[in-house]
Amino acid sequence: MPTGCLHLVATPIGNLLDLTSRTRDVLAQVDLIACEDTRVTQKLLNHIGLKKNTLSYREENERELARELADKISKGENIALVSDAGFPAISDPGFRLVRECRSRNLRVIPVPGPNAAITALSASGLPTDSFFFGGFLQAKTSARKKFFSEHKDAGHTIILYESRYRILKLLDDLMEVLGEERCICVAREITKIHETFNSGPAKIVREKVKNESQKGEFVVIVAKDGYQL
Ligand code: SAM
User: Fold this and answer.
1) How many domains does the chain fold into?
2) Is the beta carbon of 190 within 6 A of some atom in ligand 1?
3) DSSP of 45-63, one letter per residue?
4) pTM of the entire structure?
């Protein structure tokens, strides 16, 4: 392993068997693992039988720690950055550290793995040729409707993240602006026991989501206008 690198390591989004052997090797070899929630990462490390030094790198301390970690890397340390699930820096902390390393010409090595957005898109049945990743929309209805209005006639698929608490509200806001017939996919608990994909007109999908359990994590995919399954 080269010295003085940031390893950007993706981790499973539910199924621990999705962890690759390269991921294990990298985590085994680095000097320090910066992670979002040390308890979550500890579970992963226990699963793969590793004992490692971890440090909490969260949204609240990201600014300050990005500089400190980049200092360590520039002195030759190898640091891995992981988040609770999926890719670090994608709707998760990480961007500031990557930027800090790139601005100092430090080596950043991606170690790819699962990601909720791409996994959901690929299995949705909605067009995959051109898409826009919107991450989490703001909680306010007015902001969400503005977002949908701006993307109403866009010729691409849209991918959004949402929590269990706001999923139905998001679908209501979506239907109000894009209409009840807009083709969408709601993917829940991908790679986990209760994995569910519902694709079709928004009105029908919303009804299914309402009638099923809303426990867990959601990805919402929205097709361009006129697309039908
Ligand atoms: N960094 C992660 C990635 O690469 O996908 C995303 C982290 S973001 C804080 C968490 C959100 O991702 C969840 O609220 C949900 O929208 C989505 N997500 C993560 N895991 C998921 C899963 N197993 N099934 C469905 N959605 C998931």
Assistant:
1) 2
2) yes
3) HHHTT----EEE--TTTHH
4) 0.96
